[in-house]
Amino acid sequence: MDRRRAVRIANCSGATGDGPFALRRVVKDGPVDIVTADYLAEMNIAWLALEQKQDPSKGYDPGFLRQLDHETAHTIAAKGIKVVHNGGALNPKGLAAAVEKQLASYGVTSLKIAYVEGDNVMSQLGALQQPGQSPHLDVQGRQLSDIKAPIVSANAYIGMGGIVAALEAGADIVICGRCCDASPVMGAAAWWHGWETTQWDVLAQSLIAGHILECGCYATGGNFSGFKTIKNNWDQGFPVAEIASDGTFDVFLQQGARGLVSQDTITAQLVYEIQGPYYLNPDVVADIHSVKITPAGKNRVTVSGITGGPPPPTTKLAICTTGGYQMEVFFFATGLDIAEKLADMRAAMSELVPNRTAYRVLRIDQYGTPQDDPRTEALGSCLFRVFAQADKPETFTTLQIFLTGYSLGGYCGLHLCMDLRMLHPRPIISYEPFTIPYEKLEVKAHVDGKTIPISPPNTTAVFQGQKIEKNDAVVDLPRFGPTMRVPLGHRVHARSGDKGSNANVGFWVASDEEHEWLRAFMTVDRMKALLGDEYSPEYVIELFELPNLRCVHFLVKGILEGGISTGHRVDGLAKSFGEFLRARHVDMPTKFLQQARL
Prior knowledge:
This is Duf1446 domain-containing protein. Helices cover 25% and strands 26% of the residues.
């Protein structure tokens, strides 16, 4: 390998269960030097913790083992391709042993397997739960010491140091626990180019490259508001980044792969789940205020304009606890008088569930609206979702009795999902993000029987906050001429995502004039109005701009009410948040509507 050239780093997984054939494809179709993957999220670490409690040999995500088939293993060995991922979760040592065993069964014995540990801090909880030791990441004044519920997992987000050390020691496959999503790409690029840990700008660029790659097909047409422009937009190829020694990088699709890499698809992934213009990581803070995405050929773009600075002395600490139970049941209503049917069910529940105050949450929500004069029963139906949470499983008995009886005595046409297991409450796993000083972590890389301790960053800087700013030098809306009432999404793209209780959404447009209008139109007050009945004064809404992307970005703090694990929303990950807002009707200049709708 000529390590003076740019390194080609591919992704083969963006979540647990993703891309069963992606690893085979990216190593076969090439050219690729290193393959990275992301198998973890806050919640599946907790699930794995519960699994490991039953069987200590478990605790890792099996996705990589499923992807590593006989042909793929031999291709990796023959081509000298490196692999770095976070599938080790709570047991990277166990996954390393399982990978080695699987490779041996294929007759592949030349690959050196390494694992990185130190993110799992369950053994340190006694010290971390002392007052003042681990403040909450989002909620001022809350401490880890405030948590009284049983903690099932405690994982710090570690950086690239262990990955670099393992690769320098000759590892071919590096298995991490809860490293940051972008760290496999960062570590791979830093090892390849021999970067120093204080080369902030190049590290920042590799951080954003990792952010773009880590969700797999989200960068190549998946979850894309312009999906109608992409033929057969499913089973997409996975993205590849080509990162030069100065940190500049391109993102591209391998030849023949489905999907699309364009300014819009990469903008969509870049704004996904970000919390502001500064992107924090244990190795660097990336400033994306001036980020640019420019075409560089078919299915290829160049990303530039990213600068970096020292990382904070702390890193995120993901805490998952058990406590309480929840259940949800789906009823359907069809035809006429939907509002009255919903009101009937709510009134009946209010009267016939006597211990309502024993529930943390007890609600019925309507999802969807039947068509007028529907041509099929499906088009004339909507869903009523009953959702409840309580401290004890026996609390739900009154609700179960009510729902069973109401299924016969309820509104006309009532029918329900016949999976009666949904009537049984299941344990709640709650997630909260705290912080931990990086120097308290004992990160180690294990390679070929040797243990390599990893030092924390030597240079850090206390993070001063996102410094949300908006350029107020915008033009008046009347300047854009006559308007028409249409959905915002007719001319505006969006991508949304979650971080705990917060939802983010980035809006962007195609032309400079549309960008001027978007900046003038999309204010915080406008965002409150677009949220409609979803809005609460308790939410904190922050706005910032990415001018080179023609993007206005919002962070709505608190709207997910605890997030995927504890909130009442079906979409606790805010995947559809942007699409909801694109569907809202606004007064849009008619001259923009002369262009084709998205």
